[in-house]
């Protein structure tokens, strides 16, 4: 199924201009069975990205607009009494879909945010003691406004840790913006996107990613990088074991998208910052020194060596 990767990327790019790297990283995360957090200002195309992937991959799509009045039952569902059946029945919440867009997730209450924790980790929800599985494949693409924007609150660390990557979309270049304006003068590019893979084909691609070889030396390299985040003088809370697992899976997906069946140190470095910067909690000294997580991670990747005899490819 690897020959489908480029076709998917090209198709999504028809609707999302000038964001090739972000598109590729979202696809890598989907193939690694992870969730994506998009952090940026409103209006830069976060919702468009989610809709484009749902169309190209034939995924059932639902959107939750996380306003302050959204409740946990809106997310996971609820049970109510059916007088005709003389019994309680389950009414599905918005998470009962393949691709869930959790829009502006940091504008709702902590209680509602926490309703996503079980489903993001276990792909199931528990309502009134009954457990219900979500359809497969299942992904959450969360969007959040930058911290400090009106009406926002920080996501708890336990919530952030569930997202495999955190990406910034950013404004398009002037040339890309002209393309966007031109394409939308008389039509909607989203409606022209073709469905290129079925749910079954996507599940098969995910299985192929899991079979990508990752050598023990590469795993040790990942472990050393994660340990370095926990030992860094400016870091209060480093990368968790869940984060380390996310790095290894995402590195395998990076190799798969690159057309290889083995992971190299370069694959790890290519995804390490996006997979970890949202997991770090920096000390007050880092903030006073005007340091942020990506700068700390950059210094760590320069200091930690791979430990391989050859710094290049190793697949056995």
TrEMBL record:
Top-rank taxon, per record: Bacteria
MF-aspect GO terms: ATP binding; ATP hydrolysis activity
InterPro entries: ATPase_AAA-3, CbbQ/NirQ/NorQ/GpvN, ChlI/MoxR_AAA_lid, P-loop_NTPase
Gene3D superfamilies: Magnesium chelatase subunit I, C-Terminal domain, P-loop containing nucleotide triphosphate hydrolases
Residues annotated as domain ChlI/MoxR AAA lid: 228-286
SUPFAM superfamilies: P-loop containing nucleoside triphosphate hydrolases
PANTHER family: METHANOL DEHYDROGENASE REGULATOR, MOXR FAMILY PROTEIN
Name under which the protein is recorded: MoxR family ATPase
Domain annotation ATPase AAA-3: ranges: 35-165
Pfam families for this protein: AAA_3 (PF07726), AAA_lid_2 (PF17863)
Membrane spanning residue stretches: none
């Amino acid at each position: 199924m690897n020959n489908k990767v480029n076709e998917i990327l090209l198709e999504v790019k028809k609707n999302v201009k000038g964001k090739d790297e972000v598109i590729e990283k979202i696809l890598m995360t989907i193939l690694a069975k992870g969730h994506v957090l998009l952090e940026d200002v409103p209006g830069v195309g976060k919702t468009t990205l989610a809709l484009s992937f749902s169309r190209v991959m034939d995924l059932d799509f639902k959107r939750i607009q996380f306003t302050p009045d959204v409740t946990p039952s809106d997310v996971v569902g609820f049970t109510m009494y059916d007088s005709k059946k003389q019994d309680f029945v389950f009414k599905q919440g918005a998470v009962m879909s393949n691709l869930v867009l959790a829009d502006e997730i940091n504008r709702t209450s902590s209680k509602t945010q926490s309703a996503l924790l079980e489903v993001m980790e276990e792909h199931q929800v528990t309502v009134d003691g009954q457990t219900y599985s979500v359809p497969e494949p299942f992904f959450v693409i969360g969007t959040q406004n930058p911290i400090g924007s009106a009406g926002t609150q920080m996501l708890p660390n336990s919530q952030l840790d569930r997202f495999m990557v955190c990406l910034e979309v950013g404004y398009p270049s002037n040339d890309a913006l002209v393309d966007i304006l031109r394409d939308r003068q008389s039509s909607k590019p989203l409606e022209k996107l073709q469905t290129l893979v079925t749910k079954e084909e996507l599940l098969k691609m995910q299985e192929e990613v899991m079979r990508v070889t990752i050598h023990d030396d590469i795993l040790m390299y990942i472990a050393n990088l994660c340990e370095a985040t926990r030992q860094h003088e400016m870091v209060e809370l480093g990368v968790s074991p869940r984060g380390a697992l996310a790095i290894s899976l995402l590195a395998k997906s990076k190799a798969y998208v690159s057309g290889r069946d083995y992971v190299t140190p370069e694959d790890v470095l290519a995804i390490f910052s996006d997979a970890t910067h949202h997991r770090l909690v920096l000390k007050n000294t880092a903030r006073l020194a005007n340091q942020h997580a990506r700068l700390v991670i950059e210094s760590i990747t320069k200091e930690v060596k791979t430990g391989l005899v050859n710094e290049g490819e190793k697949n056995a």
